[in-house]
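Researcher: I'm preparing a figure for a lab meeting and need a structural model of a single chain. I don't have an experimental structure, so a prediction will have to do for now. The sequence is pasted below. Please return the structure as tokens so I can convert it later.
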Amino acid sequence: MWTPAVAQAAARQAFTRAPVPSHVLLDTTLDGLSLVRRGKVRDVYAAGDHLLLVATDRISAFDYVLGSGIPDKGRVLNQLSAFWFARTGHIITNHVISTEVADYPDSARVYADQLEGRSMLARRTTPLPVECVARGYLSGSGWKDYQATGEVCGIPLPNGLRESDRLPGPIFTPATKADSGHDQNISEAAAAAVVGAELLARLKTLTLELYTHGVAHAETRGIILADTKFEFGLTDSGELLLIDEMMTPDSSRYWPIDAYAPGGPQPSFDKQYVRDYLESIQWNKQPPVPSLPDDVVQNTRAKYVDAYRRLTGRELVVA
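Model: Understood. Here is the structure written out token by token.
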């Protein structure tokens, strides 16, 4: 927890990259494998006919990768995604081939020390250029839209809703996918113009079914899944697959049920804690990008690991 004095002191030091603990993986260089892209969190390599997705410990906020990593964050994202992918295969096939390094090509297995617990071998797809977002509660950009228009992505909502209120039913609110900057909420009609009306109808059905599944399980674990986003891709043969990550603290809002109190922001298991810290030091959200003090790093790690433990009933595999 920080005070204004602590925040001011941190602000003076925030723009120097903090020393990286040896157990934090910020970047990967896997010689013998071709780097396809380096995202804000994941490094993606070509591995024969497949892709190797490596979840690093980088953390982004306000569209920038910060100067500090969060220990084991990549392992949480990878292992929690694998948990959800395994639970929802009856709803839609996903891109996962294996999360076991022993199943990877020889060129990847030599990097087992980097890949264990934070990687998956996946089928190649052409990702669809639309984010598929499901919302069951009024928060984030949805709350801002509602305040301005009484709607979210063109969907009218009842008058008088408060921030974080549960919606009458889950809604599908697509967004454009941005390589940089914010994804932008769009209407279903606009999304249909991008991917076609028939495919969008299928994406909507799948998104709401996946979200409903996640909500039901999370509630049994004392957690509210307020909203989440999914990504889908098409194989060369035209098969639709669920891809990327799934219902992680990076792609979702998770709130503890026992602390839920609509009418304002909620305590969360996601990186809102980091955003709140950055607001407290009055960062202008432009380079140079700040690093995080150790207490914020450790508290953020604890939130991610706690979410994993509660949702899966397992301990995180860290070695």
